[in-house]
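Following the same procedure, sequence and fold were stored together, as reproduced here.

>
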Amino acid sequence: MVVLTEVCVDSASGAKAAWNGGADRLELCAALETGGLTPSRGLQETVVGVTDLPVHVLVRPRQGDFCYDSGEIAAMVADIRGALDDGATGLVVGALTAAGEVDRDVTARLADAAGGAPVTFNRAFDLVEDQHAALDVLLELGIRRVLTSGGRRTAAEGAQRLAELVRRAGEDIVILAGAGITPTNAGGLVRTSGVREIHFSARQPVQATLRFRNPDVALGVGEVRLGRTSAGAVAATVAAVRDL
């Protein structure tokens, strides 16, 4: 069984590390500490230029819920078109209603803006009230892929739900398992759930590079940065799901 690996990155160095580690695809975003936001066009252009991997760009205008107003939706449509102009091969989006359902109208508008490029529905899917019903809606809308942990904190915890979703999706939509996937649990997750694609960040903490600190000013500069994508961690995770 071939298992495709997608690494979530937020920098050009992370993209190169994922490529060197053997990843099959990139999800590009900014501000991973918030769950990911739309990356700048400068970052998109740079990442597309430093690897030969397919790049799927996250389009999420702000952190918080996935219920968007008209201005945010217009910005997302523009961001989708800009990402495609800059070389993205796919888009990652998510939109919900206040009732905890997939927002059909907004999702359809975003998919239409993608103009046939593959669209992944992001982990907003893990916030819906009924994942089976939500999957049916996404199938109707022609969404290619769903990123999900099975509605749990990690994909490993949601493995049984992921298996249910894989069976329901059949060959019509890809279930992309993500959240907390490591070299240690990746193989077992794939065997238990039957997913054919996994999503992970392979990040390791790094020390901040700023040596001088002004103790009277707080600008979010801590001693340790969120982390940096590790080629070694990518390679270890890829190896864990190879030839299962």
